[in-house]
Design brief:
With about 220 residues, the protein is α/β, with parallel strands linked by helices. The chain has one domain: Vaccinia Virus protein VP39 (Rossmann fold, 3-Layer(aba) Sandwich). The protein has six helices and nine strands. The protein has a seven-stranded mixed sheet. Strands 1-2 form a two-stranded antiparallel ribbon. Strand 4, helix 5 and strand 5 form a beta-alpha-beta unit. The longest helix is centred in the first third of the chain and has 16 residues. The N and C termini lie far apart (about 35 Å). The structure holds S-adenosylmethionine. The site of S-adenosylmethionine has 26 residues, from strand 2, helix 4 and strand 4.
């Protein structure tokens, strides 16, 4: 796979656009400069990789818009070495950005061919990433607790199971909506065993979270 000066130039331009749209976490921006987004695109469509837009990746799923990836990565507020669960691996792009930020990542995907493709792209990070096939709508108890959980598909509700898998001080970032079409980003911070601080943020448009705790 190649990453030419032209790709890199387009990527720097995209990152400047994200900064202009309010992304100010330098760890997020420098990770996104490092990850060649065009590698995570379907073959023959890489010319669309450096637009700030979502794009179909097959199986009726999408690679998230770069702004959304940056926004969610910023909201989870993680440090190098912390343990993160991503629900909805998709193309693997968001995972690569988190891995470039230095986290230990657990990522779960429902659609096996997508996970298999992402696994190839995430090989360079193999010591710090575990890819899991299955329904992540209720989290992944086996590797809990997490410093952060990031859900990259639109959920109908916030499952208690997810909240229980956070460390004290940990954050859940999840798009929630009462229709399958649009959601409001939510951030829940675990303040103590039973106390959570909830923030309701901007509007987004994700593909639906399916499975037991999904649609
Ligand atoms: N993070 C991805 C990326 O960077 O390409 C974008 C993911 S896409 C917007 C949402 C993904 O969530 C899809 O690949 C979909 O199959 C997956 N998904 C939906 N419900 C799921 C569930 N219950 N468990 C695991 N994955 C799920």
């Amino acid at each position: 796979m190649i990453d030419t000066a032209v790709h890199q130039g387009r990527r720097h331009k995209l990152i400047r656009e994200l900064a202009a749209k309010g992304i100010d976490n330098s760890a997020v921006l420098s990770a996104m400069i490092k990850v060649p987004r065009h590698w995570f695109f379907p073959k023959d469509f890489e010319q669309y990789a450096y637009r700030d837009a979502a794009f179909p990746i097959g199986h009726e799923q999408t690679i998230s818009q770069p702004f959304t990836v940056a926004y969610q990565s910023q909201l989870i507020d993680i440090q190098k070495g912390e343990r993160v669960l991503e629900i909805g691996t998709g193309s693997g792009y968001q995972a690569a950005v988190l891995l470039e930020m230095g986290v230990e990542l657990y990522t779960i995907e429902y659609i096996k061919p997508l996970l298999q493709k992402a696994a190839v792209l995430l090989k360079p990070y193999k010591d710090r990433v575990r890819l899991i096939h299955g329904d992540g709508s209720n989290g992944v108890l086996k590797y809990a607790p997490y410093d952060a959980i990031i859900v990259t598909a639109g959920a109908p509700t916030i499952q208690n199971e997810l909240l229980k898998q956070l460390k004290i001080g940990g954050k859940l970032v999840i798009p929630v909506g009462n229709s399958r079409e649009t959601q409001k980003m939510h951030r829940l911070t675990r303040m103590s065993e039973n106390k959570f601080h909830r923030e309701v943020l901007g509007q987004f448009k994700f593909v639906p979270l399916v499975g037991e705790g999904g649609w």
